Amino acid sequence: MSTLAAPNEVITRALLRQVNVPGLDRPAALITLDNGFDHTKPNTFGPAGLTSLDEAITAALAANPAFIAVTGKPYIFCVGADITALPLLADRAQALEIGRLGHRVFARLKDSQIPTFAFVNGAAMGGGLELALHCHYRTLSAGAAALALPEVSLGLIPGWGGTQLLPNLIGIPAATQVIIQNPLMQNKMLKPKQAAELGIADVLLEPADFLERSLEWAAGVVRGEVTVTRPEVDKDMWAGVLYFARQTLDQRLHGAVPAAYKALDLLETAKDADFATGTAAEDEALADLVFSEELRSGLYAFDLVQRRAKRPAGAPDKELARPVTKVGIVGAGLMASQLALIFARRLQVPVIMTDLDQARVDKGVAYVHAQIEKQVSRGRMDKGTAAKLYGLVSGSVDKSVFADADFVIEAVFEDLDVKKQVWAELEKIVKPEAVLATNTSSLSVSAMAEGLTHPERVVGFHFFNPVAVLPLLEIVRGERTDDATLATAFAVGRQLKKSSVLVKDAPAFVVNRLLTRFLGTVFAAVDAGTPLEVADRALDPLGLPMRPLALLQLVGPAVAYHVGGTLHAAFPDRFAVSENLKRIAESGQPIVVDDEINTEVAKLLVVGDQPLTEEQVRANALDALAQEIRLMLDEGVVAEAQDIDLCMILGAGWPFHLGGVTPYLDRTGTSERITGQRFLPRGVASLAG
């Protein structure tokens, strides 16, 4: 196996000890997975780690214990294969070898004559969860932070038994959700309660004494005092579920994510094939995908989200950040109310909203309270926490309540004069060191600060809607913004559990600028005479999370038109103002109804007589993106192309299999054709060579 080892592999050791459990006539064998680091560096399996587990299982079996259990270090069970080693595999034979090694080692727990248990004490993802599935029984900590089979999001499949074991444990509908649907929904994780309800775990235990209770429960199973019953899997619906899933994939991805289709094929195999046949098929699928461009893009995107997002390029020293003990929010509309909830929930400090009249203030506070109540009713928040949040969020029509606030953010109408008026009024009220943050989506932060006595404390703090879901926060440094203000903004972003990217004060910043350019090419095609449905499906081969018109409806035609106007004023040669988009915005009608284009909206359009084909629309859109990204990098809007991709993944939901956007433009040759150069070096987010 030495040929498979990564040169810098952090080895997860499988540490075996004998544990005396009351009520059993001989000790249990407890294998603890531990790579020697704390929870910030999770356990993963490379070849050496699998070998260590293999040796521990051999020693455990030789001791003839009452049972064998596998658990993890504090907070972490195992998060799967060491994916950093995948690009180091030399050929398909090595890919097959790593798949077969994992299967052989894990199968020893499945085939053991001695009862085997997984004590899932913390995060269990990918191969870690597959290891647990091989055990005869599973306990799960209610404090486990993340449970998932996320491989499809990276361009892989669960390659160590997951596609064969899970559907035969919890049924094909739930397995399809966990293996395919969740990874394609921004890599959605299962919470412990959900996993237990699905049947992934046999019992859910509290984290405080999880290991002790797990040992007791396992002893009860071994003694026959605890009976584990699992519902029979309905195989009659298997084919129907997979047929529907394939149709859904075709509608959403149009063949753009090979891993999702491979996973479907493997789930189909799991219905009737024996386990050895099914796992052999996993090995072949894994070997096929390891050398795909989609996997390289997926690994690149994963690295951006897991590493770069946690160390924002250009962020000042966090020691410069000022404490924030009270937050003020100017406005009480929907966006302001969403901000109030997240600030109160994450910062645990008083948050106060203001607006023009009491009715608007009351409506905003009521929205926050209703969202808290919804969390309680769904079991996602306890009543004590809810009561505290109720007390933290309040409202007023008098802006003097901001006098002792450390951080004030405005979420008022997107008009520069209105925002400047707000800050001019507030500067007379707030203390000199208070941070003044704007949630503007396209306006100049520097222009907003003009005329203020302390323009250095104004910073852009651009959230994405819905605030609770999308993790990106564009932090915009104005011309006069100082390091202390910027450091405070990044510190608050971290407390809000957002991924912050430092952005230069340029029109529409990153995500909105690119999406506006992208949508602009689509509407230019419509204006020229291209039917709406043709322009709308032109980007299907990319497998984007939604089609252009659905995206436009989500953003809001009026907002899109406004942002487009801002960019037209800045860059009239590249951002046109579409008369048809204006007509749609003014009509107030939905563009899409039940996934179909609204025929009433289509009647509003005035179009030319030079329609484009889908291929032409797609080429124009990609060319425009390549040109705009190169210009943004030349302007220094962000530090590197990686930040563009991070913004598109976290703020616009662009998929991992594209690597955001620049790897796809490189892969298709668009970047070199339009700009004369690649955005990323060869071998970064792509196959080397």
UniProtKB/TrEMBL annotation:
Pathway: Lipid metabolism; fatty acid beta-oxidation. It comes from the Bacteria. Residues 326-505 form the 3-hydroxyacyl-CoA dehydrogenase NAD binding domain. Keywords: Fatty acid metabolism, Lipid degradation, Lipid metabolism, Lyase, Multifunctional enzyme, NAD, Oxidoreductase. The keyword Oxidoreductase applies. It catalyses: a (3S)-3-hydroxyacyl-CoA + NAD(+) = a 3-oxoacyl-CoA + NADH + H(+). PANTHER family: TRIFUNCTIONAL ENZYME SUBUNIT ALPHA, TRIFUNCTIONAL ENZYME SUBUNIT ALPHA, MITOCHONDRIAL. In the central section; belongs to the 3-hydroxyacyl-CoA dehydrogenase family. This is 3-hydroxyacyl-CoA dehydrogenase. It comes from Micromonospora qiuiae.
